[in-house]
Inverse folding.
């Protein structure tokens, strides 16, 4: 009689683009992962996983998983492929890439990737080395966070703030531009702890999301008016003596100029007019914030995805400096905690290999890069595209034009993927990538201060390989003999840890799975010289004049405001994350896809009546870039003048999604995406 195999439990970490970066244990029996369990004693994970990652085993063992190299045999976009060997794939890909270099130059090859995994090793290590060694064009990876991050860096010199587990002692918590229960759920236990002790929860969001419904106060401002709201609140703080002059004198540069600016140039009435809010709402928020010493603001990326997104974050970021909230552990504000991690990314990516003069292409302008092959974007046309950790046919703005570019027969495209995504259907080669249960990786977080180690729990499914190994093999096929392409994933992790200044160790990470990178309860920006020109918090940031922006925070009107004035037929479209998906990830998991249902559009009853539309109608959302279909939900959850379509779903059948109408314009700071600066018409279909 055979003996039953004992289960093996391996510690891992969620790889997806979320501030929570949760730890989990994988139980494996006879080489098969049978259970995924959240780590109960992790200070942030706290024994629960989100709706999406609870289905991670279904993702790993999905029937439609790509498990072998695939070569295109039909027209681009049709999904007609045949299986192939790795030797055949690597030989053909290297031959094609060499031919492109010979004919058009190395910069005619473009890597396209983002945060399909957040791990340092599988995201950008061997891949960056490969493209730098090749001399390919550089990609500005700005599709998500660059506007806010750039604004924060110009203000504080680094991106940090209290972590998810540290905010429970605050008396006032403001969630600004974030649907926390969907996009940052592990912040909620600390919010609940604070509310149990009497704290007030305010949600600032144009939509009445599930988070807004759970808050004590919901402020439904006009999309794109966040800077005006922050400056209106700041006016009251200075006018009514709620500013902490002692803190500002000690820690802030140019605060008197900021005070004079908001007192003379801003008023509650001006802010209320721009935000389309009653003035008393701004007075109320300012009074509550100014009279509460222990306060915390969680900023997220919803407030920055319009032309003035960077300026909006900068204005909001200065609020805790004005009140001195930074004095208290767990108080202040957080956009990201990413600067707390001192991993040696340069050693991983080797930017010193980049040839002088190599051009950069902004990933938000992939439409232009692919549809203008002769002119390109400041250089040669793009003739080779290698996509990994992303699905640009779905997630990139102006997706109709992007797909038109992907359909070019003269564009050689390689997609490294786990599934046949919309982008993979346009590839010449699809190479099978491992999931998080099948490879090593090292993770930072942007919502807390725990670094995490991911250890593989199972062997790769089928013939799939880690991204790092795929690029090692591509390097060999391209005849790159640099010893750096021979380093293993474990060696890469140790290399990254060498930059952590002794705060992290392989021993602790491999034993526990996670380790804190800074003391709990740290008071951010209260001591020492900051990494800003003045060494202090920059209320006046002269460096911003290099971008054509004022040194003092101000309001920049969104592009769509000229098109969506009262009485116009056009509406502002917001496209926030669908609760069951993470960007376009998990959209192919049957249970999650079923739970999400068909694409819907939220519209206020006033706008529906004007357009003679009814709840449940089949509608078409359109502008001059494209259109997509949806089922109408008439609800006061959308404010007048604003509609919302939660995304992103795969188009699979060739249909279009929400990014068919979004544009490739860039933000004022960080050259980020302007997804929420979109005007559309809505009618019957």
């Amino acid at each position: 009689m055979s003996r039953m195999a004992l289960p093996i439990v391996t510690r891992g970490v969620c790889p997806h683009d979320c501030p929570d970066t949760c730890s989990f244990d994988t139980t494996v029996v006879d080489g098969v992962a049978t259970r995924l369990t959240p780590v109960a004693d992790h200070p942030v994970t706290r024994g629960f996983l989100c709706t999406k990652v609870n289905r991670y085993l279904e993702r790993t063992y999905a029937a439609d998983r790509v498990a072998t190299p695939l070569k295109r045999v039909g027209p681009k976009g049709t999904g007609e492929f045949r299986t192939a060997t790795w030797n055949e794939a690597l030989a053909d890909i290297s031959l094609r890439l060499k031919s492109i270099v010979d004919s058009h130059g190395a910069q005619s090859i473009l890597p396209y990737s983002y945060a399909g995994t957040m791990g340092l090793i599988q995201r950008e290590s061997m891949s960056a080395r490969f493209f730098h060694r090749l001399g390919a064009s550089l990609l500005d990876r700005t599709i998500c966070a660059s506007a806010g991050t750039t604004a924060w860096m110009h203000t504080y010199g680094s991106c940090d703030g209290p972590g998810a587990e540290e905010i429970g002692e605050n008396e006032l918590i403001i969630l600004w531009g974030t649907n926390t229960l969907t996009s940052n759920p592990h912040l909620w236990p600390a919010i609940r702890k604070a509310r149990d002790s009497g704290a007030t929860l305010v949600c600032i969001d144009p939509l009445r999301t599930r988070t807004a419904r759970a808050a004590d106060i919901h402020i439904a401002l006009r999309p794109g008016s966040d800077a005006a709201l922050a400056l209106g609140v700041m006016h009251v703080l200075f006018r009514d003596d709620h500013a902490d002059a002692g803190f500002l004198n000690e820690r802030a540069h140019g605060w008197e100029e900021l005070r004079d600016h908001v007192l003379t140039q801003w008023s509650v009435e001006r802010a209320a007019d721009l935000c389309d809010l009653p003035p008393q709402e701004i007075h109320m928020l300012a009074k509550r914030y100014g009279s509460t010493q222990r306060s915390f603001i969680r900023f997220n990326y919803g407030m920055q995805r319009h032309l003035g997104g960077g300026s909006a974050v900068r204005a909001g970021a200065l609020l805790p400096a004005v009140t001195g909230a930074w004095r208290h552990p767990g108080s202040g504000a957080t956009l990201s905690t990413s600067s707390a991690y001192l991993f040696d990314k340069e050693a991983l990516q080797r930017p010193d290999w980049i040839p002088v003069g190599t051009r950069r292409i902004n990933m938000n302008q992939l439409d232009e890069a692919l549809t203008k092959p002769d002119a390109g974007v400041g250089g040669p046309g793009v003739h080779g595209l290698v996509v990994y950790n992303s699905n640009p046919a779905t997630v990139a703005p102006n997706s109709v034009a992007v797909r038109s570019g992907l359909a070019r027969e003269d564009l050689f495209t390689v997609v490294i993927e786990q599934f046949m995504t919309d982008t993979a259907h346009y590839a010449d080669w699809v190479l099978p990538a491992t999931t998080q249960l099948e490879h090593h990786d090292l993770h930072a977080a942007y919502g807390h201060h725990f670094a995490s180690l991911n250890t593989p729990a199972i062997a790769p499914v089928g013939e799939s390989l880690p991204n790092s190994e795929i690029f090692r093999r591509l390097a060999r096929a391209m005849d790159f003999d640099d010893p750096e392409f021979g380093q293993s994933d474990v060696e890469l992790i140790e290399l990254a840890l060498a930059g952590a200044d002794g705060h992290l160790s392989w021993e602790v990470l491999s034993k526990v799975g996670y380790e804190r990178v800074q003391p709990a309860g740290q008071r951010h920006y209260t001591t020492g010289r900051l990494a800003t020109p003045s060494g202090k918090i920059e209320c006046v940031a002269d460096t911003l004049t290099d971008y054509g922006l004022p040194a003092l925070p101000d309001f920049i009107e969104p592009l769509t405001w000229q098109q969506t004035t009262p009485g116009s037929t056009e509406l502002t479209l917001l496209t926030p994350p669908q609760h069951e998906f993470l960007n376009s990830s998990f959209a192919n998991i049957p249970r999650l896809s079923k739970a999400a249902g068909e694409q819907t559009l939220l519209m206020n009853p006033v706008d529906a009546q004007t357009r003679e539309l009814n709840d449940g109608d089949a509608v078409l959302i359109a502008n001059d870039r494209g259109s997509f279909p949806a089922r109408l939900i008439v609800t006061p959850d959308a404010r007048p003048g604003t509609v919302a379509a939660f995304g992103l779903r795969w188009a699979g059948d060739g249909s279009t999604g929400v990014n068919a109408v979004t544009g490739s314009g860039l933000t004022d700071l960080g050259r980020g995406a302007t997804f929420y600066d979109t005007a559309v018409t809505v009618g019957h279909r």
Summary: The first strand starts at residue 8 and ends at 13. The mean pLDDT is 95. The longest helix spans residues 86-104. The chain is about 30% helix and 15% strand.
